[in-house]
Amino acid sequence: SIAEEVEKLVWAIRWGGDTVMDLSTGKHIHETREWIIRNSP
C-alpha cells in the first residue's frame, strides 16, 4: 500500500539514509512514487 511505502521512507530518513530506492510495481505505481516524492525531504 502507499501508506506502507511512505512509512518505509520515513524510517529510512530517521535512520540516516541518504538515498531511497523504490521497487514498487502494480497498478498504482505512479501514485505511489508521487507520494514518496511528496514526503521526501
Radius of gyration of CA atoms, rounded to a whole number = 10 Å
Helical amount: 55-70%
Low-pLDDT segments, ≥5 res? none
Beta-strand percent range: under 5%
Give the biggest beta sheet: none
Average predicted local confidence, pLDDT: 91
Structure classification? mainly alpha
What is the count of structural domains? 1
Distance between the termini: 21 Å
Q: Write the H/E string, N to C.
A: HH
Q: Please, how many helices?
A: 2
Features:
elongated, single chain, 2 helices, mainly alpha, about 40 residues
Could you characterize the architecture of this molecule?
This protein has one domain (2-38). The protein is mostly helical and 41 residues long. Helix 1 runs parallel beside helix 2 (29-38). The model has no long low-confidence stretch (mean pLDDT 91). Helix content is 56%, strand content 0%. The N and C termini lie far apart (21 Å).
Summarize, please.
With 41 residues, the chain is mostly helical. 56% of the residues lie in helices and 0% in strands.
Task: Describe the secondary structure blueprint for this structure.
Blueprint: H1 2-14, H2 29-38
